[in-house]
Amino acid sequence: QVQLVESGGGLVQPGGSLRLSCAAFGFVFSWFDMGWFRQAPGKEREFVAAITWSTSTYYGDSVKGRCTISRDNAKSTVTLQIESLKPDDTAVYYCGATVRGSGSALLSPSYKYWGQGTQVTVSS
Predict the structure, then answer these.
(1) What value does the mean pLDDT take over residues 11-31?
(2) DSSP readout, the chain?
């Protein structure tokens, strides 16, 4: 069974940091580009970050300079480090996998596989 399992979400104060992790099961991890998206209630799913099979990275405008995405093919995991968190970062964060070579499609919520999401709440 194909699974993407996110972890690391929770409640954090503004200005704090979080590390989100995603573990992949049931497919050849190195054949896929990986990404993180987020969705707040009543809003569309928003691109956060992506990393390709060759470790090229891309970031959404709202998080650029505050986030770092990385992957470990040996462990079939992808992580997202978020710094200087703001209340507007509050959302459910989803891990996704798409076939490598997707190009500009990395920035759209059209991935082949999705995790169940992990809640991030930024509040004082």
Answers:
(1) 98
(2) --EEEEE--EEE-TT--EEEEEEEESS-GGGEEEEEEEE-TTS--EEEEEE-TT--EEE-TTTTTTEEEEEETTTTEEEEEE-S--GGG-EEEEEEEEETT-GGGGGSS--SEE---EEEEE--
